[in-house]
């Protein structure tokens, strides 16, 4: 493994972790009101495009980073929808 591949893997790991604090916070407070659904959808769609690109060229750092971001952004979308429904049920 050369220095550039190592840097790519480190970048992939760091990129993958960017959404983790938000997922943890959202889970703890059981609210996603402050999150923009538009931003979440754009991130989710962009990870799909990056995954297609990564798999097409077999770029492991791109695949690792975007696989993790795909799962974390999908989790935040799920929280955004499910916590909103819970709040609506509680207030009804």
UniProtKB/TrEMBL annotation:
UniProt keyword annotation of Cell inner membrane present: no
Q: Keyword set for this entry? A: Membrane, Transmembrane, Transmembrane helix
- Tell me the InterPro entries matching this sequence: PQ-loop_rpt (IPR006603)
**Main location group:** membrane
Annotated Pfam families: PQ-loop
Signal sequence annotation: none
Q: How does it sit in the membrane?
A: Multi-pass membrane protein
Entry's localization field = Membrane
One cellular-component annotation, GO: membrane
- TM ranges: 35-53, 59-79
**The protein's name:** Glutathione synthetase
Q: Upper taxonomic classification of the species?
A: Bacteria, Pseudomonadati, Bacteroidota, Cytophagia, Cytophagales
């Amino acid at each position: 493994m050369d220095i550039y591949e190592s840097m790519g893997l480190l970048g992939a790991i760091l990129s993958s972790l960017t959404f983790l604090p938000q997922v943890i916070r959202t889970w703890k407070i059981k609210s996603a009101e402050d999150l923009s659904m538009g931003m979440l959808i754009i991130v989710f769609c962009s990870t799909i495009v990056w995954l297609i690109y990564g798999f097409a060229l077999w770029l492991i750092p791109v695949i690792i980073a975007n696989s993790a971001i795909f799962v974390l952004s999908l989790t935040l979308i799920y929280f955004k929808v499910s916590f909103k429904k819970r709040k609506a049920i509680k207030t009804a």
